[in-house]
From TrEMBL:
CDD domains: CGS_like. Gene3D superfamilies: Aspartate Aminotransferase, domain 1 (3.90.1150.10), Type I PLP-dependent aspartate aminotransferase-like (Major domain) (3.40.640.10). GO terms for molecular function: cystathionine gamma-lyase activity; homocysteine desulfhydrase activity; methionine gamma-lyase activity; pyridoxal phosphate binding; transaminase activity. It comes from Candidatus Anaerotruncus excrementipullorum. This is homocysteine desulfhydrase. Pfam families: Cys_Met_Meta_PP (PF01053). One of its GO terms (cellular component) is cytoplasm.
Length: 383
């Protein structure tokens, strides 16, 4: 059945993009480990390769550009995002840079959030200025700062829907209106929430980006990036991803396809666990503050209730009253929660952010809550 006929996100997560293999009837999408595709004759070669080079769905020429397994993942994610098209890349940074390069040329200007994933920040501070593209960073919760930063040559407003690591929530409807009234494209990295909790295209974003490595893959076993939006814009992203050599491998695409089938179940548990842990952490005397949009005292709690009716996500951050020194003792006392960067895995991960003066970022997993609090209690006992 056509994915467009389903009404529930859960059904799309399980079924979209995955139709029985036309050659064999295999119910699950095969891993097409092939670099190239053979044609029976010259006329078919001409027709199919031309169609593939224009990014026509279902046409394959060479797997740097498109492949049946990676295309199945694109169809699944497009259905989840409510997008005309999705381009898959080798990792989230491949997606961020293919998207930004497709919209920004030398002489252009980009207004970007001051709170972004660290490598996105590096790209905006090093890569783009070195190539003649100016970038200004602003607090995207202050819309006057954004207005003031816009110049005649500004082309893009770039932000994270829920930001890494300080969990600032973007008022997407208002920001889309602001961006479009000034002729800018709104590009949103939605890695922290996933399309299960928020679909930025529904709120006016032009392109939505994911590090599929995180919640979509969900098991810490595959790198992946995704860019979704109108086909015209996504085709330009494909051109850049192709030139930059950023296509995903069929095997990693297959792992992400499989991971997405339980995305809604994982996030339901992760949202419950994260809200419970945020409240529990806030009640600990050694905790200075907790950042989580589901807490009533989060500065954007009202906006979060409006934008995130299904749950406030699995990411939270907290700061110990003892700062950096306390963080070291706390983290060293943990026995089950691993100290590891990355996020969105089925298992909880803790990232001690040295650069943020002792902010502890938790990517809350699907474990039982009692085991999670028991481990964190070992940390508090060591202070
Ligand atoms: C991890 C991450 C990225 C980069 O993704 P990779 O798959 O690691 O390249 C981009 N944006 C955000 C918000 C991330 O957390």
């Amino acid at each position: 059945m056509d994915a467009n006929a389903y009404v529930d996100f859960a059904t799309l997560a399980v079924k979209a993009g995955q139709t029985p293999d036309p050659a064999t009837g295999a119910l699950n999408t095969p891993i097409y480990e092939t670099t190239t595709f053979a044609y029976p004759d010259m006329a078919t070669y001409e027709q199919k390769s031309q169609a593939a080079l224009q990014w026509t769905p279902g046409y394959y020429f060479y797997s740097r550009s498109a492949n049946p397994t990676t295309a199945a993942l694109e169809q699944k994610v497009a259905a989840l995002e409510g997008a005309e098209a999705t381009a898959v890349t080798a990792c989230g940074m491949g997606a961020v840079n293919a998207a930004l390069m497709s919209l920004l040329d030398a002489g252009d200007h980009c207004v970007a959030s001051d709170d972004l994933f660290v490598v996105s920040t590096q790209s905006l501070q090093q890569l783009y200025p070195a190539k003649g593209i100016q970038v200004d960073r602003v607090d995207i919760t202050d819309h006057r700062q954004i207005e003031a930063a816009i110049r005649p040559n500004t082309k893009v407003l770039y932000l994270e829907a829920l930001s890494n690591p300080h969990l600032k929530l973007a008022d997407l409807d208002a920001l889309a209106q602001l961006a479009h009234s000034r002729g800018l494209k709104l590009v949103v990295d939605n890695t922290f929430l996933s399309p299960c909790l928020l679909r930025p295209l529904d709120h006016g974003a032009d392109l939505v980006i994911h590090s599929g490595t995180k919640y979509l893959a969900g098991h810490g076993d595959a790198l992946c990036g995704l860019v979704s939006g109108k086909k015209e814009l996504v085709d330009r992203v494909r051109d850049y991803s192709d030139m930059l050599g950023s296509h995903i491998s069929p095997f990693d695409a297959w792992l992400v396809l499989r991971g997405i089938r339980t995305l809604h179940l994982r996030l339901e548990r992760q949202c419950q666990n994260a809200l419970a842990l945020a409240r529990w952490l806030k009640a600990q005397p050694q905790v200075a503050y907790v950042l989580y949009p589901g807490l009533e005292d989060h500065p954007q709690h009202a906006l979060a209730q409006k934008l995130l009716p299904q749950g406030f996500g699995g990411m939270l951050a907290f700061h110990l009253t003892g700062g950096m020194e306390a963080m070291g003792r706390f983290v060293d006392a943990l026995r089950s929660i691993p100290i590891a960067t990355s996020l969105g895995d089925v298992g909880t991960l803790l990232d001690p952010l040295h650069r943020d003066d002792g902010l502890i970022r938790l990517s809350v997993g699907c474990e039982g809550l009692r085991d999670l609090t028991a481990d964190l209690e070992r940390g508090f006992a060591a202070l």
